[in-house]
Amino acid sequence: MKIPEKNQFQVIKSNFTKIKIQTIPDKNLTLLEGEILVQVDLFSFTSNNITYAVSGNIIRYWEFFPAVKENIEEWGVIPVWGFADVVDSKTEEIPVGDRIFGYFPPATHLKMKADRITEKKFIDGSEHRSTLPSTYNLYKRVLSEPNYDRSFDRDRALLYPLYITSFSLWDSLKEHNWYGATQIIILSASSKTSIGLAYALHQDESSPKTLGVTSGRNLRAVKQLNFYDTSLAYDQLNSIDNNLPTVIVDMSGNNEILVDLHKALGDQMKFTLKVGLTHWEESNPNEGIIRERSKFFFAPSHIEKRIKDWGASEFDNKTSRFLLDATAKTKKWLNYKDLDGLEELKTQYPVVCSGSLPADIGLIVKM
Fold this sequence. Notes:
By secondary structure, this protein is α/β, with parallel strands linked by helices. 29% of the residues lie in helices and 27% in strands. The chain has helices spanning 47-54, 153-175, 192-203, 219-225, 255-265, 299-310, 312-330, 341-353; strands at 7-12, 15-23, 35-45, 75-76, 80-89, 99-104, 109-115, 121-124, 138-141, 183-187, 209-214, 230-233, 246-250, 269-274, 294-296, 335-340, 361-366. It has a six-stranded antiparallel barrel. A six-stranded parallel beta sheet has the order 12-11-10-13-14-15, with helices on both faces. A three-stranded antiparallel beta sheet has the order 2-1-4, with helices on one face.
């Protein structure tokens, strides 16, 4: 079959501010039995994707979608969440025209090996993905969903990967009885994952009070959400009550701020969950962090645990209710900005990389 223009958005792994758009060779898209070819339709791009790049070697994010052509060890592909349509198929179980939601490269096309196929989903069983976190290998066949509505694709692409992490954080904190804390400090409170967590805590009457910390330019917007009990700018940290047992959820990755809080709270710092890296440039290790009461929170591990605890159906029910409610709240303040393909992503990428994209903007790349 004749394939339209095919490209892949790449970054230098060791310096992911440097980018290029690379043509995908035809040989990379030639199908064998059991494989499908999808054409990416749209995907979101947020600071969460920058976190994938920062931790690309640690959590093996670079391995999902290897860079095509030369210097594949130097260049990498940052994964994204979105929708794609099947344009060629070597398996009878997945027809051309099927539409899927899941984890993709920022690219026009992707060859996949469809495995463990059901009416509603399948796994990409490509050999190079077999030892990677399974949550990222699952694809939903959305045309089988009774209430699927294409007009909500942008919401799902942008908010599902963020708010599923928000839900998992809330659920983990609750499972650990808030680590004995009476206040939860959320750093980078304007990030959408933080807002989702704040919403979950706001709805839970048993949760401790929440304190959101954000930049001065985002403080007013964070206060207007009315999800945080208290909202502060980073230069107001000295007004925090250090006598209260405290949990910190760090979405910022700014270790300088984290060190200051750990020193100020001392024994009252009950636990820190490190999640995102909004301020990745300040994420180098610092002396003063209480490491024995800190850990990196990896949402896919919690998701896998809860699917085992509750069963896949109950997990989907609980998370779907939360996602629908949180999305409805979010759409009251969120503004989408549509980008026309990889060339326009190239122009907006530095803004996302620098952490200066306004909190109320959601980027959607339409291919």
